[in-house]
UniProtKB/TrEMBL annotation:
NCBIfam families: DNA_YbaB_EbfC. It is found in: Cytoplasm, Nucleoid. This is Nucleoid-associated protein G7077_00345. The keyword Nucleus does not apply. Residues 4-31 form a coiled coil. Pfam families: YbaB_DNA_bd. It comes from Sphingomonas piscis.
Length: 107
């Protein structure tokens, strides 16, 4: 059984790995889309929006409501993909940690 110093060192290593994984999430990019690609939103895995791309056919006053719906759907798609990418990165980070079976990381 590890002594207190070993446990503290493992905790510090885990904290450093977690910080590294968190920092990496700004480099992981995802794209959410809606309307068959008429609206595309690029974001980081942390959820920061990088770009919004709108098909020109949507830039008509009569398409305002549809455009609003498509933007909301694309944002939600990007957010879902960002969450999935973040979870995948955190799973990679925690894979090497000596955690008890069934332990879930708080992220």
């Amino acid at each position: 059984m590890p002594d207190f110093d070993e446990i503290m060192k493992m905790a510090q290593n885990a904290q450093a790995e977690l910080q590294k994984a968190q920092d990496n999430l700004d480099k992981v990019e995802v794209e959410g889309a809606s309307g068959g690609g008429l609206v595309k939103i690029r974001a980081t895995a942390k959820g920061r929006i990088l770009n919004v791309d709108l098909d020109e056919s949507l830039l008509q006053p009569s398409e305002k409501t549809m455009l609003e719906d498509l933007i909301a759907a694309a944002l939600n798609d990007a957010r879902t993909k960002a969450d999935q990418a973040a979870n995948a990165e955190m799973q990679k980070m925690s894979a090497g940690l000596p955690l008890p079976p069934g332990f879930k990381m708080p992220f």
